[in-house]
Structures
1.
Amino acid sequence: MKTVTLMYFAQLGAQAGCSEEQVETGANTVAELFLELKGIHGWTLPADKVRFARNDAFCPAEAGFSEGDALAIMPPMSGG
Amino acid sequence: MFTLSDKAIDHANLRQSLERIDAGGFCNFEGWVRNHHLGRGVERLEYQAYVRLAVKQGQAVLDDAMQRYDLLGLRAEHRIGALIPGDMAVWVGVCSVHRDQAFEACRFIIDEIKATVPIWKHEFYLDGSDEWVDPTACNCDHRLKSGAHSH
């Protein structure tokens, strides 16, 4: 099990009711972690639309992570 | 340089920073807050950003444009925080020796900012509802099909 800090943005943060939290997880990849949290937070966005970042850098869905990492789960960008 | 601002974009200052006597053209795009979206009246909006990554990714877009096009200078700034219709949401400016590179680079930069920089638009409508805008909800690629509609 690893403890990581998670950041949620836009509708993911609104649905979760928080923009940041620490979680203990047995997931091996950020995609696994997303699916683990999807049911808990009631996220409606499908996994293929989500982007991830690890320690302030984009990472692929199959990326692993380490104890203490800061992970971001992001919906499609809508700036501009 | 790519910047985020929680205050009104100072477009005159941004433009001035790109003035140079060896440039033959300057091209600029300004994104403005509309008072309507897909048939609904917009009262206001809020931009949220993942600031550390947005600044890094915005700069990566500009660095990419500098590699792809023959430019002399470029700047871009995006608003965060609360905006109302009529406010400027994003500013992009490029200068080059000839106009073609400036036009093309300007289009490239705004399209890449919209698609890849972690900024999100929360729209509040006149009917009291609100929504986080999802440009992928209509399944169209706005980098290829411009003009049909926009988000």
2.
Amino acid sequence: MRIRTASDLSQWAEHVRKREANISIQIKVCGGAGCRAAGAEVLRDALIQAAGEQQRKIEIDFDKCLESDANTFIGMTGCQGLCQAGPLITMNGELLVGVRPKDAADVIRAASGEISMPARLYYRSNPGGTPLKQKSEIPFYAHQELLALKHCGELLPQSLASYVHLGGFTALFNAFQKSPEEVIDIVDASGLRGRGGGGFPTGRKWRSCVDASKAGDNECYIVCNGDEGDPGAFMDCALMEGNPFVVLEGMIIGAYAIGASQGYIYVRNEYPVAVSRLRKAIVMCREAGLLGDNIFDSDFSFNIELVRGGGAFVCGESSALMRSIEGKIGEPTSKYIRSTEQGLFGLPTVLNNVETFACVPFILSESGSRFSKFGTEQSKGTKAFCLAGCVKHTGLVEVPMGTTLRDVIFTIGGGIQNDRPFKAVQTGGPSGGCLPAEKLDLPVDFDELTQVGSMMGSGGMIVMDDRSCMVDVARYFTRFLLGESCGKCVPCREGLYQLHTLLNGISKGIATKRTLDDIELLACEMKKSALCGLGKSAPNPILSALNNFRDEFEEHVNLKRCRAGVCAGLTTFVIDETKCTGCLRCKSGCPVDAISGSANQTHVIDEQRCIRCGACRQVCPDDAVQVAK
Amino acid sequence: MILRIDGKQIEAKKWDTILSAAKRNGISIPSLCHHDALENVGACRLCVVEVKTSSNGERKLVTACEYKVAPHIEVFTHSEAVRRSRQTTLDLLLARAPENKLLLDLSRENGVESTSYSTSPDANECILCYLCTRACEKMGCNAISAVGRGQGKSIQPPFLTVPDACVGCGSCAAICPTGFIEMIDMPSKRVIWGKEFERAKCESCGAPLIPVAYREWAIANRELPEDYYLQCQECKRKELASKFSGLGVS
Amino acid sequence: MEKTLVVIPSKCTGCGTCKLACSMVKGKGEIIARSRIHIHTTGPDSHVQTTCLQCVEAACMKACDTGALVRNVETGAIEVNADRCIGCGLCEIACPFGHMHFNLQTGKSEKCDLCGGDPACARFCPHGALEYK
């Protein structure tokens, strides 16, 4: 079916709504990476089997389900948010957590009203708490504000009908009723800034591209950066997997605004699900006339090509990404001339992040004026974050800009696992930094984070407790970057190697008093002289750790002690006699048999044999394994 | 247009980079990866200079080889920030190739005696300036390229095998500033990138000339007839001399 | 009109002063063989000097793809811009008269540039066998 007018859209949505009413059971299994890892696909198959055994008429393709007499739909959505409690299921509006394949028959039976839903499948704030059925009751969801991720987890990502049903492409139609300049004005007025980390105002970027292409009488391109590579970040992945249409719609609106006829969406190949769903979404949009020639019967034609990345972190950097699309080596080039003037194939190019494009349809929708009501003075709207690390509720969250770190970590994230003390939060991935407890009340927006030496980045947020060693964290990110530096410019290539060597020295206990100064000097020089954003921001994790946790670094250097018990060369583990109950768990967990003692007797660690892996500490239920002072 | 470099007013063309404008005006800026005939890559970061734009008065480090001149900018080629940055870069490069003469000379000129960092075990004298790959690209062969990434990056033929596209012109070896690329010329053959090239022989005296493959490539790619590539220098000069002999005047 | 370097073989005694002068000016005199002017003995007491003819349709320039060979409009000489030479060596083999020299040490080509308008060979020839006029 080809969509030509707004009434085509609303008729289609109405049609879906009517048909959907016939489906009495709608089971949506979360297909986010976390839930898939927890067995969501096996669970879906078990549900299908159970439904079949209970004589339900099942359909697993939403489009077919609408046109058939099936009364049960079982399908997979994108990420539903609360990864910690996966696999998740949304069933007729209720959220079920930690569903196992063995629960499948019960779930189907409960859905048909034969039995009541087993209470164990509902979320509880603590083990004895009341089961909460609706997302709105669960603190993790209640404090969020979903704009970009609005339909993620609800929409069927392989069905255009599902997207249209949820109001999809009305924003595009709205945009087409305006002139391209007006669209840019609206985006500009919304205060939307690039979600990829830099935070450049999107409207201004679009306008400068238009100006450059008019001045040179050139074509221009629109590119979507889906090469999310930060450790601990998966927002873009969730968006592309969960709602590929909103990304495409945002791109089409952008293309209309700047007058591009060709767009590229660059997705890292490590996201095969995102790649296949986007591909399918592009085909569906093309068939519906939402991509291709004469969109909405206008003069405007636009095509999107999907380009897969080759596995280089640096290709998330805009100039490297464009070289990669051009078929050249994915290495950054100097950006003394902006890509809005000379970008892809040397022509004016707008490059935005997945999440940025996902915000655009909301801004152009009826309720678009709400966008700038969220956020701070300089950073409007909301931002998706990936809560990871030692936080109780790891998962995908979206909050208004300006929400404090404390709210994100403690209110939404539920605090630190095992109620250990909070030590640091790492934002912005390898380009960002670690912030200590004193910065917890910092409102999260582009400028605030930059001011304290971290970065918004793409939105990774890794929470650490007192068992994280900041030297080790700095070393981890440096090693990551060492492996990912493209090696083009000297400061990044050689500098990271030297920084890593110096940090290794600290964690081995062979560093001297000068080492910290050497690290700081080199890091500062790298920041100034490296070629691209990756190299310029590569020292951030080290510098922020040094600034905020200098005493811990000095302790490593001067006292040869790692308080967190992570740096193997500086740690000795002992078992606290007063706490040890002799449960044998540490003994059986030790990979080198360094722990002696029998049941109900205090265990003892053989210091000679111990390799300081910390496995005993991880498994001890009584916190008896401690770092020797 | 007029700009200021180190307080001196200089005239520059609109296509100039800071480096080219400085050079024309006798202001020296060190560089390792820049070459006038090749596209700039900004890899060595040695030509960094400080630029103050009139818009906000902020001073930032840029690479002189890539930064296009603009009216009223002020450039500092030897400020404290520039000096420190160059020293760090050279210090880091020396850690990679501590014995290299070119680097040692350049470092001493810039106030670095020896590296203060540890040498990596697999370091070598290739400083990854990309001159060879760009020269190869300029010749139109594209036989070598940077392979891998980070510290382990190296210049290699595709798939680390003998490069099909190489014609043995030797530009890479000639342009390599540290002498890392090895080319062996023997009377009968030239060896480079693990590939052996049979050398053409002078039609008159049999002296070795360029590789046969290179000659064929030149015939196909340059507007010169085949017989231009047949004789050695000496024989060509002798032939010219014998023609002159008795004529009196050239 | 620009001046020309004129060789008068009848006056040449084969003494080699021109070669010495050239190598002094162009290469600190270290290697006389690298002189850009050559003397050929064609018979008893018969010598011919040869050097770059600064051809109008120069083969070396056609062989060079980097713009490293440029004609000096004042002297008419074809000069090597060493900053643009990538060392491919094609100019050397292309020159039909053997007067392009590829320097293996520097990896760049070298040739007679008429010393920028005052050729040392002519200045130092004791026999008037080389004239620049």
3.
Amino acid sequence: MDAIGQAFADLERYFFNIEILRDTIPQLLPALLVVFEILFLSLLFSFIGGLTLALTRLVPLRPLRWLVGAYVDFFRALPLLLLLTYIYYGLGLFGSTTGLRFLILDPIPAAILGITITYSAYSAEIFRAGISSVPHGQMEAARSLGMNNYKAMLHVVLPQTMRIVVPPLTNELIAMIKDTALASVITTPELLFRSREIMGLKANPTPLTAAAILYVAFTLPLIRVAARLERRYGKGARPVGM
Amino acid sequence: MDQPLIKLEGVHKRFGDLEVLRGIDLEVRRSEVVVVIGPSGSGKSTMLRCINGLEPIHLGRIFIEGIDITGSKTNINQIRQKVGMVFQQFNLFPHKTALENLTLSPMKVQGKSQSVAEQIGQDLLAKVGLSEKADEYPGTLSGGQQQRVAIARALAMQPDMMLFDEVTSALDPELVADVLNVMKDLAREGMTMVVVTHEMGFAREVGSRLMFMDEGVIVEEGDPRVMIENPSEERTQKFLGMVL
């Protein structure tokens, strides 16, 4: 009995130390802002990137389509952790040796670049599925009304695609929030990195729990939102007007 | 004036190894209502889709108002504005209201102002008897109502001719009449129409020509009233025996 009691006491002291928690959470707020910054920009860029990749796949130029396909497959396969390392350390090393200083990125831009590259590949697949799930008759109706491909895409197909991709993109965002923690390996001052620093100072791992609380508090509402969007727009929902 | 609005010369169309159109010659003059019948797979829908440039052809030529649309230099988008098309599956834009379905192309393609496009749209919705549905989304309309909106949408581009591709085939029987009435009104107003359908009553009432297609060729054509009573080809007789 004593051993178990001791185990719980240790757990509380090292991982759920209330005093340290109270102390750490305010210190982590700037790091949370860094997470927001990375998220906002990565989300924006990977949305544009993914949509561009998906649309490029529709262009009737076989080499171009192949290239996009190769990009998407490769970056879906490559672990983000390694990509971040290559961008920050690899490009940085190359830049400092060659004098191409623009290749030496600060941790935050490097993190945004890496996450954008990977998540563009993910979202490209989501957009591709979304576009192809709009019935072909929609494109034909638009074309028969005299719209060119571009206008038909812009006014008819893409607005319908957006409804379809909202739930999967929200799920992507949730995954992205957690993947920002990977940026800690390239010394980005985000949540996990800062909590590990504070852990070192306090000689106590409770700051990790503080970070965990913040990640969960931030992500949980989004998970609920995603579930609601899924019900509203997702596969099971009644298609409108078909 | 006497130049046909639609002219097909020896049109051939293949899907892979399957030749669905095997030499179609057709002329449609202004205000003619050509009704096309035939068993499924006879190529009648494909012919309509070729006239609108939705399907490329392999051989032959298609002229719309004297312009060769099979030529590489032709701006097909411009031609399509003259040729309205209505589909079996309606294909209304589900994210737009009925009125917005009608105004989208006039605004984005013809550059009409919103107020002008909406005026045209409202008039057309009134014409198809759906004024009160202007702000409804297609999902809340019945099939028959959707199809009438689709007809109005095609008319909103003020086309010179209209193509109807089995537009009542997906409808419940009690909804067919409303759609046919709209089409009959159009025919009586002098709209040039090519109508793929199984509705023999429609052919008899407003058709200026009936055309029977089978296996990618036009088997027989003539005055609908004469041809329905007295088809000269055996294949036509057989087919009419099944649908009448």
